[in-house]
Amino acid sequence: MRSGLLTAGTWLVALIASVPLISVLYMLIVQGGGRLSAELFTELPPAGFEMGGGFGNAILGTVVMVAIASAISIPIGILAAAYLSDVDPDSKLAQWTRFLAKVLTGFPSILAGVFVYAVVVLAMGRYSALAGGIALAVLMLPTIILTAEEAMKMVPRKMKDAAIGMGCTRSQVIWQIVLPTGLPGILTGVILAVARVAGESAPLLFTALFSNYWLNSLGEPTASLSILIYNFSSMPFENQIELAWAASLVLVLIVLVFNILSRLIGRPKI
User: Fold this and answer.
1) Homologous superfamily of 56-266 in CATH?
2) Which of 83, 98, 138, 239 has the CA that lies 20 to 30 A from 106?
């Protein structure tokens, strides 16, 4: 009886916790689902009193900046995790790195934007997709480091000792044993980090700004879905407000897909 009551209570709490998520998804589908069409992904945002239009440039800009952030943060994060888990896990440097990574997980995203603005945007003299990607990389890095370290620690010690006993060097153990074995957990962390930054808006306001045109180079301002939603939702034009709802639905679906992928990849194999 106690087990049944606890099970029922757990299901009840889980249902209550899912109400906000279901409510948001329902609202986005009702408000933005009617505007979903091919032109949304191929046309530019409309101006003022124009009708129609889309946000293809914002989708492209989001993808490009997330790709830049991934190219920067994934190699650095995995190498840092390898150092923390296998190279010198008990050193002062490793302890401080873990501490700073944990601090950065709660770092306000707008401060990352301000930091990159001071370091990159002012140095370049303009807003750019590159600066936006660097700001997102700052936010991705701690998540990748901490999840990759835990994934590498889950690799059985016997496998590492067996590889060393066969004459493998430490670098060979990491590259040929630790990384392949811990790959599902590492990929889970990477996907979660991507899902987190895909919807960020505050750091992009200070780094990439916005643009109503297609991205031609990494050194120019670029559009993103989150900033487009921020801009269009406050406009007095019905068409732009509808586009903001549709963009919100697309962004939520993108983040939802990444989260589902992380669950599937990180699921223990039976």
Assistant:
1) MetI-like (1.10.3720.10)
2) 83
